[in-house]
Amino acid sequence: MSKFAPIFAVLVVVFFALPSFAAFDTKQAEHGDIKAWYIQDDSLPIISIKIAFENAGYAYDPSGKSGVANFVAGMLNEGTKEVSSRKFQKLLDDNAIEFIPSLDKDNFYISIKTLSPNLDLTLDLLNKALTEPLLGVEETERVRGQILTSINKRDESPNEIAAQVFAEKVFGSHPYAKSEDGVAGEVKSITPSDMRKFMKSHFAKDNIKIAIAGNVNQGRAQKIIAKIVRDLPKKADVVELPEFTSYPQAEIVQIEHNNPQTVVVFGHKGIKRSDKDFYAAYLLNHIIGGDGFQSILYREVREKQGLSYYIGTSFQGYEHADLFTGTLATKNIDVEKSINIVKAQLEQIAQGGVTQAELDNAKKYITGSFPLNLDMNTGLTTYLLMMQLEGLEISYLKNRNNFMESVTLEQVNAAAKRLITPERLLIVTVGGE
Amino acid sequence: MNKKSIIILIAIILLGIILYSVFVPRDEEDIWQWKEDWYEAFTLSNGMKVIVIPNSKIPAVSHIIWYRIGAMDEPYGKSGIAHFLEHLMFKGTLKHPDGKFSKTVAEGGGQENAFTSQDYTAYYQKVPLEQLETVMEMEADRMKGLTIADEQMTSERSVVLEERNMQIENNPRSLLNEQMDAALFQNHPYGNPLIGWKHEIEALNTQDALDFYHKYYDPQNAILIVGGDITAEKLKPLAEKYYGAVQSEGKAEKLNIIEPPQRAERRVIMRDERVKQDELWIDFYAPSHTYGASEHAYALTLLSKILGGGTISRLYQELVVKQKIAVMAGAQYSGLKRGPGSFTIYAIPAEGKTPEEVEAAIHKQLNLLITKGVTEDELASAKKSMIAEMLYSREGLLGLSIIMGQVVATGLEPEFVSKWTQNIGSVTAEQIRAAAAYTLKRNNSVTGVLKGNE
Prior knowledge:
The complex is a heterodimer.
Chain A: E1 27-31, E2 34-40, E3 46-53, H1 68-75, H2 85-94, E4 98-103, E5 108-115, H3 119-131, H4 137-154, H5 158-171, H6 184-187, H7 192-202, E6 208-214, H8 218-229, E7 251-256, E8 261-269, H9 278-289, H10 296-303, E9 311-317, E10 322-331, H11 335-352, H12 356-369, H13 377-389, H14 396-405, H15 409-419, E11 426-431
Parallel strand pairs in A: 2-6, 7-11
Antiparallel strand pairs in A: 1-2, 3-5, 3-6, 4-5, 8-10, 8-11, 9-10
Chain B: H1 8-19, H2 29-32, E1 40-43, E2 49-54, E3 60-67, H3 81-88, H4 100-107, E4 111-116, E5 121-128, H5 132-144, H6 150-169, H7 172-184, H8 198-203, H9 206-216, E6 222-228, H10 232-242, E7 266-271, E8 279-286, H11 297-308, H12 314-322, E9 326-334, E10 341-349, H13 355-372, H14 376-392, H15 399-409, H16 415-425, H17 429-439, E11 445-451
Parallel strand pairs in B: 2-6, 7-11
Antiparallel strand pairs in B: 1-2, 3-5, 3-6, 4-5, 8-10, 8-11, 9-10
Helix pairs in contact in B: 1-15, 3-9, 11-17, 12-13, 13-17
């Protein structure tokens, strides 16, 4: 049995030039003073829409009513004043219309996918769901039961426990400490009128952002904006959260959970999206613990030592706070060893920086893989929405790789020195002895 | 990003997608139709199959090689070797040692991963077009050229054990499902966990991996699927140059294990202090598209949608909406397998209700289904929903490639994908009733109950 394949010469042949392709061509549509950004691709009769209501995420749940935003998300397909819950869901199901709500700390999102012949029906249902929800007693109790179950199931998961404890430890009394599902006791007290109040004050014309991709043109985009916002109030009635400034000192928090493997979450302050060093930090993170199999922590923790199946880091920007966090999971006896490796690596990077070769490779991956994420409409709408929320230029998709390319080694290493502070790591572990 | 993971979930989701295609004539008929040349297939001189699915949305391609080898082909006592080998395939070859393949893909801006199932093992890269040839050269090289150092094996085995900890040991539901599989399949290797039993993973070594590799990794056992900005005409010479040059050592014989008739209802009860809310699962041993009474497979697909696909399904409407004894209920059919399929029902009891009460209500629904069947309305609605869903899978570079790969890797012809629409469209209500009567029998089933400590 021959063990090796015949030896080939390594050939890298470029057989097509890279065209500048339509996926980057972002356009703007307007209706009144509300705008949407969209990218047209008529190859399939599919339209993806993603909307965001700013300052309507779960950090904005009123005090004593944690979980309201999540509850509203759960009620989104539970009928309107005119259409019963079952009928509403049957219309979605029969026509393959997707309404997928999601939340982060700051914002409330809805991802919509539909076939273009069903666009009018889709927009009617969305409009009514946002402005004339049924919020019936029976439906409310059903969804409440599901949310309480998901809270129970969350408490079975060491990953979710670790993430929540970490948020509480970091943010303390700031609303960013809240959990998405809310606290069971408070979820039990939420009424349809609480939800109605939340929707009226948080879903408005002045805090909506709209992104569209797929079988859409200028006219269709205008129609989409018009229908979505038609019956929304002019202004949202929300008090913006205060800036978070009191980042925690180093600490290790151990949570006992009877598992053979311990989940470890670590982190400290990060960087704002608007900071001049943002792109340097982005590249830096890729080198430390970013996507793919080439990061320093992947190599040191997984490949060399076999300690964890997963290890990754990221910079997370919120509207009023920013973090650098990472996570790994290792068998209980190896927790200390794993943490020590992470700390030692971070110290070395903070002090000694990274190499030109590491930066060059990171740039190659970050710029080369960027267009690969743009083959799906949902990927495009996510970018278009982020661009609007972050106040970026409409030309961002075209220029983004240039921003990455122009970062120098000095900038990355200055960012490492400023941003990576292992002596301040907050570490949460959830696992057995 | 999970490297080299067992993508069970992806398989389930994609299965769901492929199961959701149907042909319904209407005004916009042509938008639902497959173009005649949506894929092209050819065979290389050494017997390796290649399928191209053009899509020019971005100047990139997905390149996936599928080996018709999975956990079901493992030698007795070596559970987990298929998946472990998949991890080790990233270590390198004589020609491209020390993870150079992954490094090259990353530096070219490409993404990669791999996944193992009971039925197949697949390696994929999504790369800018100009990197395709490099990837083809390197993937062809590791079809026969893998080298593994013992210290690489040892540390990767620890990684796999941590993967098992994360996916199975840390998760009571996964532990229950593992026990249920072991009870459902009495002779077929599907009864072994895909990732392997912990004690058997711990004992796997370099030689085990190389033995499995040399036996089964061969052009005649492989299918290449390239999706994206390329045509068959352009791909063919490259495929011949790299993959065509890998010498085939012939198809290794695979065991063909047949299940005996299932004769007894089984019950698996797991108590685990970590469980905060009880769950009920019922698995039925079922035909698949390639195994057993496969004439029922299309009907079972529609049945899973009508019985438990989404909130307007029978189980959800009956148990959650009307009777309020469960907070969640649904069903799932896995019919795209090399071996037997399975039909799964799950429910989470509402507060104050027991799994046993929910179980009784489910069986009442199943009896009703078997005696009275489904209505024409339910059938039409399920078909309508499926045709629309199918269109979504045509977006992007990966969707159709993965569906096509699963179809071909499980032994079906590529036409299966195009013909799916008509075949689902022609299923009758009586066929669904008959498929339910054939499959949803207690003697065919394992009931699993997950509970917290008493």
